[in-house]
Amino acid sequence: MAYPMQLGFQDATSPIMEELLHFHDHTLMIVFLISSLVLYIISLMLTTKLTHTSTMDAQEVETVWTILPAIILILIALPSLRILYMMDEINNPSLTVKTMGHQWYWSYEYTDYEDLSFDSYMIPTSELKPGELRLLEVDNRVVLPMEMTIRVLVSSEDVLHSWAVPSLGLKTDAIPGRLNQTTLMSTRPGLYYG
């Protein structure tokens, strides 16, 4: 669960979210190193009176600052593509949950079982008990098994919605007339808000 003034991500609960956190740290380190180098070069240019004319027109320098960014982009793109393919992969789901977005609530249906569906309404602020979270608590929570691959089919009845659980690394658009699909696998038990 996120907490006030939090600077980082929520704790990872799925293997996909762990991969996303590693990718975030990898990319952030590259951005930090590039920013430090640029800041260092700018400060050198502002404080040094000496300039060497042959350095400004050198073919080698132009080659380096053309090839180096291409290599850096490849170092960012390859892990990103790997994670995108991992997120899209579905391996023999043990359970399928159909999620339908409505104007003010979500409908869930466990499609592997007959007549097992329910609606999930947000609890109004006036009815919250102490310790419950405003705009996150619902009357019927989705209960899912851990360490099992679960396929979630997401669609909408009326308008665009976004079905998201940040600690699982999930965010799927619910679009009327379109059926989107995502998978999840929780590695530990818990209560996850989204």
TrEMBL record:
This is Cytochrome c oxidase subunit 2. InterPro entries: CcO_II, CcO_II-like_C, CcO_II_C, Cupredoxin, Cyt_c_oxidase_su2_TM_dom, Cyt_c_oxidase_su2_TM_sf. Its cofactor is Cu cation. Residues 1-91 form the Cytochrome oxidase subunit II transmembrane region profile domain. Keywords: Copper, Electron transport, Magnesium, Membrane, Metal-binding, Mitochondrion, Mitochondrion inner membrane, Respiratory chain, Translocase, Transmembrane, Transmembrane helix, Transport. It catalyses: 4 Fe(II)-[cytochrome c] + O2 + 8 H(+)(in) = 4 Fe(III)-[cytochrome c] + 2 H2O + 4 H(+)(out). It comes from Hydropotes inermis. GO terms for biological process: ATP synthesis coupled electron transport. Its main location: mitochondrion. Residues 92-194 form the Cytochrome oxidase subunit II copper A binding domain.
